[in-house]
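Thread: quick sanity check before group meeting

JM: Hey all, I'm pulling together slides for Thursday and realized we never actually wrote out the predicted structure for the chain we discussed last week. Dropping the sequence here so it's in one place. If anyone has concerns about the input, flag it before I start.
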Amino acid sequence: MASSSLASGFVRQLVGKGNSRLIGSMAQPIIAPSILSADFAKLGEEVRAIDEAGADWIHIDVMDGHFVPNLTIGPAVVKALRPHSAKPFDVHLMISPVDNFLDAFAEAGADIITVHPEAGPHLHRTVQRIKALGKKAGVSLNPATPAKMLDYVLEDIDLILVMSVNPGFGGQKFISSQLRKIEAIAKRVDKENLDVLIEVDGGIDSETAPLAVSAGANVLVAGSATFRGGPEYYAANIRALRGEG
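JM (edit): ok, ran it. Output follows.
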């Protein structure tokens, strides 16, 4: 079952941030390549390449080596990348405590800031701060984190990120049990007529992408599947994720 709510207000706002396409159907999900799989030696060039190849958003995974077993980038890198694309920067903070860094990533150029319920003591307060900074607020659910964690913030957020792998590393296998979680969230979003996007991240490729979309996802994060083969393949990789061949 696909969510009938496309969170159109959210999408229209992001079109003004550099999105060239207004998503019109579930057959055309938003594609957010994760730069975790990019060549870090030339990150600016990689961001420009995926932008030109047709990416809708740029997904930026921030890891602290504490909340997840990997260490990636900080606000300075996000700020350095900002001039390389006008597309929305979808910043996923896998750091704890997270509240201390919200302002820095907002100032660096994030358009969407997504946090985990486990990354701070007061999720509602964290969401409030993100919105006060003028950014879109997302909440991410790890594979073992139940959808009920959204119960008292769902009306306040703009995006739900369902992790279909355990966060920390790229190239992992899609955890199929997360399809049930996506379906449950999509049904609730529809029932309550909420302007919320459902994003899925982890093991997304041309085979798992349609499964996620059918379950109700309307934003797909893909790292390895996007950057595979080098810049000359990025456009074809993105088309494959959209189911365009």
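AS: nice. The first helix runs from residue 8 to 15. The beta strands are 30-33, 58-63, 89-94, 112-115, 136-141, 159-163, 197-201, 219-222.
JM: adding both to the slides.
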